Amino acid sequence: MHSDDTDPAHHDENVYDALATADDDGRWAFGTGFDAGTAEIDAPVPEGVDRADLAAYCLMLADDALIAAQRLAGWTAKAPELEEDVALANIALDLLGQARVLLSRAGHLGAAEPFRAGPQDDEDVLTYFRDDRGFRNVTLVETDLGDFGRTIAWILVLSSWRLALMQRLTGSRDPVLAAVAGKAVKELAYHRDYAAQWTLRLGDGTELSHARMQAGLDDVWPFVEELFLPHDVERRLAEAGVAVDPAELRGEVDGVLEQVLPLATLTRPERAAVGLVGGRGGRDGVHTESLGTVLAVMQSLARAHPEATW
Amino acid sequence: MVTADLLDARTVVEGVVDPEMPMLTLADLGVVRGVETAGDGTVVVTITPTYSGCPALEEMRADLRRKLHAAGHDRVDVRTTFSPPWSTDWISDAGRRKLAEAGVAPPAHLGPRAVGPVPLTLVAPSRAVACPLCGAPDTEETSRFGPTACTALRRCRSCAEPFEHVKEI
């Protein structure tokens, strides 16, 4: 025990004491290295719901947030202004927090077992030791963020869609999904406002900012359609009162864009959808080569040194 | 039955400070959801994160374990719960005072959230946030996202000083 704990003269509230007295039993070097210990994780699977379906759905929503967070983290220390650097990192952090609980739930339901090679927690196994075909994220989140205009268009679409989804998911029969959604709604409302306000500023700004904002929106547009295509797992779980059928979200997302784009003097793009191969997309593990780039950055060090601790 | 031991554990828990806003105890912040003793004597503490990705959470857990061990509670289990989601409305009146005294503008009371789709906010809300340094009411938001997940950055138009604001959630 550290002497500060017993000496009344040092019994102040210095949080740094914790650093000096932390158990140094060696955290795994790359991931969280600790169990989030969330009370809801081991809640029973709701009656009439297939365990594998629920695990797959948790992975879908986790992977959307995890890959989006990894993409956004690429802006850290590179954003146009310090405030935007902080904002983008904060948005990434919120999404990462949502992903962690969902990954733990998916792991609790068995999703991590095929990938386990060491003592890591479920969320770390799923993050670092899964290949691209095992990821269930929509294509949009793996695409390159491009310039700041494209990044804003990407956040506007993603957060409008995820907010509409999470708001409905607060009524899920699965207590973990409902709990994650309850927090996510508050966070995503900030993300969407941030993107909408920047869309106005850039779209209705200078000739150059308008052109780049419109180009960013055009680039993102082909990936929007996939957001509203229900996967069989989503259909079955929506039927059971656990998931949300994404087709239901189109009206609300359109409503947000109809509110923002005209004010920003931007034109709603007319571009053919991409992202599906033979009707299969990110939800089936069919990804673009962009995901390989994201995973290389995110996973390669951990895979090269899977036993490393600090 | 509430034992003296449990009262003691509760006092210890409520006195632990937030690692990012150390002017507040966890009780001020409103994140302590339960302190109970299990059958085998384990002190079970339940806390709730302010934001899903709050990086302070693990430090809070470590600090709770450390302080409870130091107070003689050998078996400690710190759990987190997401539901119901934390709201800045749970920050105590004492906490709000301490924030203001430390130069951080406390959050406004939100009250119950409306059911249904969340409305889009295209202009910063006109809710007045007084400057915690000079007291002037005329302040502006410079960034919705600040150095911690809980805070936004503002500037006083009167004394020109920048300050943090615990944004409503």
Automatic annotation (TrEMBL), chain A:
Keywords: Oxidoreductase. It comes from the Bacteria. Signal peptide: none annotated. It comes from Actinomycetospora rhizophila. SUPFAM superfamilies: Ferritin-like. The gene is paaC. This is 1,2-phenylacetyl-CoA epoxidase subunit PaaC. Its EC number is 1.14.13.149. InterPro entries: Aromatic_CoA_ox/epox, Ferritin-like, Ferritin-like_SF, PaaA_PaaC, PaaC. PANTHER family: 1,2-PHENYLACETYL-COA EPOXIDASE, SUBUNIT C, PHENYLACETIC ACID DEGRADATION PROTEIN PAA. Pfam families: PaaA_PaaC.
UniProtKB/TrEMBL annotation, chain B:
Residues 121-167 form the PaaD zinc beta ribbon domain. Residues 10-71 form the MIP18 family-like domain. It comes from the Bacteria. Transmembrane segments: none annotated. The lineage of its organism: Bacteria, Bacillati, Actinomycetota, Actinomycetes, Pseudonocardiales. This is 1,2-phenylacetyl-CoA epoxidase subunit PaaD. InterPro entries: Fe-S_Maturation_MIP18, FSCA_dom_sf, MIP18-like, PaaD-like, Zn_ribbon_PaaD. It comes from Actinomycetospora rhizophila. It holds the Pfam family FeS_assembly_P.
